[in-house]
UniProtKB/TrEMBL annotation:
Keywords: Transcription, Transcription regulation. This is Bacterio-opsin activator domain-containing protein. It comes from Halalkalicoccus tibetensis. The lineage of its organism: Archaea, Methanobacteriati, Methanobacteriota, Stenosarchaea group, Halobacteria. It holds the Pfam family BAT. Residues 5-141 form the Bacterioopsin transcriptional activator GAF and HTH associated domain.
Amino acid sequence: MSTIIEFTVPAEEFALYETLCVVPETTVAVERVVAHADDRIVPYFWTSGGDQEAFERAARDDHSVAELTKLDQRDGAALYRAEWVEDVETVAYAYTQAGATLLNASGKDGRWELQLRFDDEDASSSFQHYLEESNRSAEIHRLYKPTQPQMEGQPGLTDLQHDTLVTALRAGYYEVPRGLSMDELAGELGVSQQALSNRLRRGHRTLVENALTVNLSHDDV
């Protein structure tokens, strides 16, 4: 049975530390990650908020980034493909070696919020042991089985996702007709429309996965 771990970690222990320090107001939301055998991790991620040109300059000078390519841009957000160097000292390297699936990764102001799924308990236990023994500054917020009921009415949601969904519900976003638009909701939360869309999509996916116990292959994530 799979296990999901949600935790936060300083950017220097994951990726883009130098970049996030230069542009702390920028949010990086990873869409998916592909690991290659040639010591490269290839993430696709959206950025929103802050100075986009400053982000690109910082990212191209960042020691954790081997290559950066802009793929798309809309609504004040940009989609990039990058190559992160597989540094054996980072959590990014450890989770790929453990065979975990990255469900959610959001970086801002020098920290990353991560959600990983492990297909078996041994891999999950080994990763937790790694975090403890390597003196990582990781802070585990939630550890659970997707089929188990969650504490505090949050079925696997991160605190950020939970707060966003609750705010959207109370504001009438899910009413028919809607009480406010996505743009208005984004303004109320102080984020870009693209960042809100990504947050809602991940929150909805988490709710569906846990409510329906949907099993997805790695290629689907």
